[in-house]
Amino acid sequence: MLLVEDCPTQALHIKHLVQRVSGYDVRIASDGIEGWKQACLETPCLVLLDINLPGLDGFRLLSRLKHGQVTATIPVLMLTSCDSVGDVEHAIALRANGYIFKEDLFTSKDAAARACADIELFLGGEHGRPSGPR
Questions:
Q1: Cα separation of 109 and 31, whole Å?
Q2: Would the N or C end of the chain have less CB density within 10 A of its end CB?
C-alpha cells in the first residue's frame, strides 16, 4: 500500500494505524512526484492520497494514476482535511474510488475505526487480512 502525505507526523500516524488494522505494509511518499514514481515501480494494492501536496498536487496525481497504463486499476482513496463538497466531487470526477477525512483518523477511536473499515473494504473484504506483505 502507498500513502502519499507531505506532513511527516500525519504520515507516520496514518501508516501505523493502517498497518495495525490491516496488516499491510504501508510505504510513504512525501510528495506527488515521489508518489507517482513509487506507484509506477511498485504497483501498490491501494493508494491513500492527500489532496494538498507540494508540486504535483493530489488531484493531478490522481489523474495521472487513473490514466497510467500500469496504474489505472489501482484503487485510490483520497485523504483530505477539507470537508469541501467541491473537493470530494472533483476527486470522484477524476475517478477516485473514495475519500477519507483526515480528522476521522485523528479525532477518536470510533472515527478512526470507521475510516480503517473503509480502507479494509478496498483490501479484500471485511477484515482485509493479507496473505503476505503488499
A1: 28
A2: C
pTM, entire model: 0.87
Please report the sign of the dihedral spanned by the C-alpha atoms of residue 8, residue 22, residue 103, residue 55. positive
Non-local CB neighbours of 6 within 8 Å, separated by 6+ positions: 30, 31, 50, 52, 53, 54
* Distance from C-alpha of 129 to C-alpha of 84, rounded to nearest angstrom: 32
The region that residue 53 occupies, defined by phi over 0 for left and psi between -120 and 50 for alpha, beta otherwise, is beta
Domain boundaries defined on the chain: 2-121
**CATH 3.40.50.1110: does it fit domain 2-121?**
no
